[in-house]
Amino acid sequence: MNRELWDWPRFLELLADPRRRAILEAAMAAHDLRIGDYIGGSFTETGAVMGFRARLEAGELVIRSTVPGEGVIGRGWEALLRLLAGLDIAAWHCLHVWREWPAADAIAMGHPFALRAIEPVLTALAQVYLETVWPGGRRAT
């Protein structure tokens, strides 16, 4: 793979560096984000499924299998990095980072929901992306 044309190796480097990873950790904590298989499903074939969902619980990243009954399969960022680094770099994998809101909350807030709830999450994720592709570069404000 040509590293300059592929963000995956760069994302793994971000995960491996605690200083750079701090921006992802802060975004996940501030916005109650999850990482792994999106709960809503995927439009891709079964082979692209990650097989886990992770979120911060009491400040610790807890990784749970999506297979019923398997439960916790790892704890911490290093465990996540090991899972991701073990994947075939030449294959497509659907890793999602997302946040959910109850539909009732979005409906009750009306039009301002996008600005008040979604925009801060997208801004935080954009900064994670910038740190991934441009380490130490200028961040959006």
The main sheet comes to: 5 strands, antiparallel
Are there runs of 5+ residues with pLDDT below 50, and where?
none
Strand content: 15-25%
User: C-alpha Rg, in Å?
Assistant: 16 Å
Main sheet strand line-up: 4-3-2-1-5
What distance lies between the first and last C-alpha atoms, to the nearest angstrom? Answer: 32 Å
Average pLDDT figure? 88
Strands, count: 5
Structural class: alpha+beta
What oligomeric assembly is this protein in?
A: single chain
Q: Given the C-alpha coordinates, what overall shape results?
A: globular
Percentage of helical residues?
40-55%
**Topology as H/E string?**
HHEEEEHEHH
Helix count from the secondary structure assignment? 5
In short:
The protein is of the alpha+beta class and 141 residues long. 44% of the residues lie in helices and 16% in strands.
